[in-house]
Write a structure and sequence with these properties.
single chain, alpha+beta, DNA Primase, Chain A, Dna Topoisomerase Vi A Subunit, Chain: A, domain 2, six-stranded mixed β-sheet, five-stranded antiparallel β-sheet, 54% helix, globular, binds zinc ion
């Protein structure tokens, strides 16, 4: 996917953006020798193992293994694709990429058309009296806030925008592709947004990617969004993030709301870290995007049933990304927009303080579905709670198990035994799935196969020298078959095909057949075994040598000279061992 244009872009950007500067904006870096060091933004850590090399223009984390250049850092950190990252850096460092991407040129044109449309809506909203402006003013949104969000108005006519943009020479089919116009059965084009307040949707790189339109007064649908286009992917963007991103760091928190109006109202009230998912339930991509900025997420959804259900699902999605969100309970059953308007920023900030941790919220919701005075229903409720706990990390499960037991008046012991049962079942399923995926990535090699073949001939070959013992089988398949073979008693030898097949799990049978096809002459068995062990030793040493070299190269200046000497000594030692093996 990296075409010639993109390579030029990468070179251009890398030569103009200093990686230390780019990363230094979001990670606090300390000079350490010739490199810089800081806390890794891609995993949780207390002591810095994230190294940035100015000379190599490269970063590497020795904790989680993430590494790359300035562009891949921006991609990962801001959850952008290559083009998005390149654009962001180009804009921040004043690099002209206008001729760089062929396809990008096309996208740029689409952004430009969206911008034209936004200006058209904006002018209609500003320049004369209109129902859109009256509506927003009535809802208490100030002139400044409206301006900041670029709110506009689409009039009731059928072709105002269509006429305006085609008059500028823009092809009607492009407008259709962008979702700015609709097409009738008879093939007539007309404005998609009519009689609506328009909310331009802007991504973090500052491009207008789509629009949301709210009906004025009654009517359906209440909200209308641009459809998915080449420049607009709902599930990967959040409304308001283009503004909120500059404030999230300060509060170290995001307030996640349901709609455009909530975002606008909260920003006006001074809650500047409010963002909304775009007319859909929160997606894992949006959760991953949020995580790049903060792990403190407050869900503030509507008080009605639909809103609370959405909050419940949102918690699960966020938990899946490692975020333990909280849910804000707005007093008096109000929506966040109404509440903040009536009670102001301070009351909202207090409500944030009181936000309910995800586990408590989920248990409360489960409990609300049962009549707990009935023993039968109480047992059913306990079952439901256990199902929920099974999806949590062990520590979280433990915390909420204690709470739930007390709440439901059942013993912790009973609840935890039930949890064990549920987890065992789901773990077995997960294990089977994991194994499938691992098998492909770490396929069994010739050396492992020969060793396994030897073990099927004589049990004594299942014993390995101490120095290689736990490192012989690198592949999941090899380890799985070895485990099965090691479990067979010596008295069962010589093994029949039947005995073998019944010991090894079904998914390994095909590999087992291949292994059994290997022919080793009886007088060569011991020699074959020794060769395999020698090969394993070499492999282990080579892996370690690679690890040390990378560590020395990247760690230069960040590890003490004693550590460096120790690594050098180990490497030297490995090299002489390799010669001997
Ligand atoms: Zn890391």
């Amino acid at each position: 996917m990296v075409n010639k244009g993109s390579i030029n872009v990468a070179d251009e950007i890398k030569s103009r953006c200093d990686i230390v500067d780019v990363i230094g904006r979001v990670v606090s870096l300390k000079k350490a020798g010739s490199n810089y060091k800081g806390l890794c933004p891609f995993h949780n850590e207390k002591t810095p193992s994230f190294v940035v090399s100015e000379t190599k223009q490269f970063f590497k984390c020795f904790g989680c293994g993430e590494s790359g250049d300035v562009i891949s850092f921006v991609e990962k950190y801001y959850n952008l694709d290559f083009k998005g990252a390149a654009e962001m850096l180009a804009r921040d460092y004043g690099i002209d990429l206008s001729n760089a991407f062929l396809d990008q040129g096309n996208k740029k044109e689409l952004y430009e058309i969206n911008r034209e449309a936004a200006i058209f809506f904006f002018k209609a909203f500003r320049e004369k009296d209109n129902p859109g402006y009256r509506y927003m003013a009535k809802r208490g949104i100030s002139h400044d806030t409206l301006h900041q969000f670029g709110i506009g108005y689409a009039d009731e006519e059928w072709t105002s925008l269509t006429d305006y943009l085609t008059g500028k020479g823009i092809d009607i089919r492009t407008l259709y592709e962008l979702g700015l116009v609709s097409r009738s059965d008879k093939g007539r084009y007309y404005d998609k947004f009519r009689g609506r307040v328009i909310f331009p949707i802007i991504n973090v790189t500052g491009n207008i990617i789509g629009f949301g339109g709210r009906i004025i007064g009654d009517g359906e649908p209440k909200y209308l969004n641009s459809q998915e286009t080449r420049v607009f992917q709902k599930k990967k963007n959040l409304y308001g993030l283009n503004i909120a991103k500059d404030y999230i760091g300060k509060d170290d928190q995001i307030v996640l709301v349901e709609g455009y109006m909530d975002v606008v109202s909260l920003h006006q009230a001074g809650i500047k870290s409010a963002v909304a998912s775009l007319g859909t339930a929160l997606t894992p991509e949006q959760a991953a995007l949020i995580k790049r900025y903060t792990k403190n997420v407050i869900l503030s959804y509507d008080a009605d049933n639909a809103g609370q259900n959405a909050a419940d699902r949102g918690l699960d999605i966020l938990y899946g990304e490692g975020i333990k969100a909280k849910v804000l309970k707005v007093p008096e059953g109000k929506d966040p927009d109404e509440f903040v308007k009536k009670n102001g920023r301070k009351a909202f900030a207090e409500a944030i303080e009181q936000a309910i941790p995800f586990g408590d919220f989920k248990i409360d919701r489960i409990k609300a579905q049962y009549t707990l005075s009935s023993d039968e229903q109480r047992a059913a409720c306990a079952d439901a709670v256990v199902q929920m706990l099974a999806d949590l990390t062990p520590v979280d499960a433990d915390i909420y198990l204690k709470k739930a037991a007390a709440d439901l008046g059942v013993s912790e012991r009973a609840l935890s035994r039930q949890l064990e049962n549920v987890k065992r079942d789901s773990e077995q399923r997960r294990f089977a799935k994991d194994r499938d995926s691992h098998e492909r990535s770490a396929a069994i090699d010739k050396n492992e196969m020969t060793l396994l073949r030897l073990i099927t001939i004589d049990k004594k070959y299942a014993q390995f020298p101490d120095d290689v013992k736990d490192k012989v089988f690198k592949s999941r398949t090899g380890a799985g078959i070895y485990q099965a073979l090691a479990g067979i008693q010596e008295s069962d030898y010589p093994l029949t095909m039947e005995r073998l097949r019944s010991s090894v799990e079904e998914e390994y049978l095909q590999d087992l057949n291949e292994i059994l096809d290997i022919v080793i002459p009886a007088d060569r068995e011991q020699q074959a075994f020794d060769d395999c062990i020698r090969f394993t030793r070499k492999r282990i040493l080579r892996d370690r040598a690679d690890e040390i070299s990378t560590q020395m190269e990247m760690g230069e200046g960040t590890i003490t000279s004693d550590e460096m000497r120790a690594l050098q000594a180990e490497l030297f030692d490995i090299q002489s061992k390799l010669k001997k093996v």
